[in-house]
């Protein structure tokens, strides 16, 4: 559960987030909105890369805003970036294993835990391949795999579907939808691909000019006339 209460973030006087209040409770939540709506700023706020001028943020009841970014990672807030952060000369296995240096984890069966994550993300067959030999889809799945190491509570995925083929996008969809049941983490997904949001998210927040334009079941939100006008251009 993510609870945002009267949250504002400003850059040089421009409010990127402006008095945002929302409770996101679905296992997989969508976050959409036009360019510049404040979506990435919200993800940056949740992961600790920007500070709020006002308001409070709770994840599973724990206040986040006083926590340093690394403490949030240990707490279980994880994110992917629009540009994949894969170490080119490390194997897929070592890229994923390196996350263990930063997060609490069970010491027993470490190899099995990592193997399960690679199998879940479809990366077992390329486990020994160095980052530089991976295609775009495999790099995206390495990002997902890294986010699953340890016991994540909240996964923030920022446009993970950008540039993927339809078939790759479907595989990504299946992986994202299964995360809450398999790994016990909530997912917040930002994407401009409305089909991906429809297929994966039961609840969606729409932002516009840093404010909440709509929040509710995804199908209802996408039919909302204000959302259609502001975001879908109809
Ligand atoms: N570091 C920054 N310094 C100044 N202004 C910023 C900064 N980051 C974001 N902004 C501004 O804040 C507003 C929200 O930006 P943000 O990147 O969060 O939007 P977005 O919804 O993620 O957009 P997009 O869909 O294009 O990625 C924009 O007006 C942007 O120019």
Automatic annotation (TrEMBL):
<protein>
    <submittedName>
        <fullName>Amino acid/amide ABC transporter ATP-binding protein 1 (HAAT family)</fullName>
    </submittedName>
</protein>
<dbReference type="Pfam" id="PF12399">
    <property type="entry name" value="BCA_ABC_TP_C"/>
</dbReference>
<keyword id="KW-1003">Cell membrane</keyword>
<keyword id="KW-0547">Nucleotide-binding</keyword>
<dbReference type="GO" id="GO:0016887">
    <property type="term" value="F:ATP hydrolysis activity"/>
</dbReference>
<dbReference type="GO" id="GO:0005886">
    <property type="term" value="C:plasma membrane"/>
</dbReference>
<dbReference type="InterPro" id="IPR027417">
    <property type="entry name" value="P-loop_NTPase"/>
</dbReference>
<dbReference type="InterPro" id="IPR003593">
    <property type="entry name" value="AAA+_ATPase"/>
</dbReference>
<dbReference type="InterPro" id="IPR032823">
    <property type="entry name" value="BCA_ABC_TP_C"/>
</dbReference>
<feature type="domain" description="ABC transporter">
    <location>
        <begin position="2"/>
        <end position="234"/>
    </location>
</feature>
<dbReference type="InterPro" id="IPR051120">
    <property type="entry name" value="ABC_AA/LPS_Transport"/>
</dbReference>
<keyword id="KW-0067">ATP-binding</keyword>
<keyword id="KW-0813">Transport</keyword>
<dbReference type="InterPro" id="IPR003439">
    <property type="entry name" value="ABC_transporter-like_ATP-bd"/>
</dbReference>
<dbReference type="Pfam" id="PF00005">
    <property type="entry name" value="ABC_tran"/>
</dbReference>
<dbReference type="GO" id="GO:0005524">
    <property type="term" value="F:ATP binding"/>
</dbReference>
<keyword id="KW-0472">Membrane</keyword>
């Amino acid at each position: 559960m993510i609870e945002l209460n009267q949250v504002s973030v400003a850059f040089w006087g421009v409010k990127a987030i402006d008095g945002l209040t929302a409770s996101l409770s679905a296992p997989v939540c969508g976050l959409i909105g036009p360019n510049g709506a404040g979506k990435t700023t919200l993800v940056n706020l949740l992961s600790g890369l920007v500070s709020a001028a006002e308001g409070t943020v709770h994840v599973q009841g724990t206040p986040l805003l006083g926590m340093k970014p690394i403490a949030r990672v240990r707490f279980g807030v994880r994110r992917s970036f629009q540009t994949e952060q894969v170490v080119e000369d490390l194997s897929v296995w070592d890229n994923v294993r390196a996350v263990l240096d930063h997060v609490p984890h069970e010491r027993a069966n470490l190899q099995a835990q990592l193997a399960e994550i690679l199998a879940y993300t479809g990366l077992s067959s390329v486990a020994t391949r160095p980052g530089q030999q991976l295609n775009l889809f495999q790099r995206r799945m390495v990002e997902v795999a890294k986010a699953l190491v340890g016991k994540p509570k909240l996964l923030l995925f920022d446009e993970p579907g950008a540039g993927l083929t339809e078939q790759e996008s479907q595989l990504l969809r299946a992986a994202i939808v299964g995360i809450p049941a398999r790994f016990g983490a909530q997912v917040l997904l930002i994407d401009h691909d409305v089909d991906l949001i429809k297929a994966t998210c039961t609840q969606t927040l729409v932002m516009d000019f840093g404010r909440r334009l709509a929040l509710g079941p995804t199908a209802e939100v996408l039919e909302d006339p204000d959302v259609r006008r502001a975001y879908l251009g109809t």
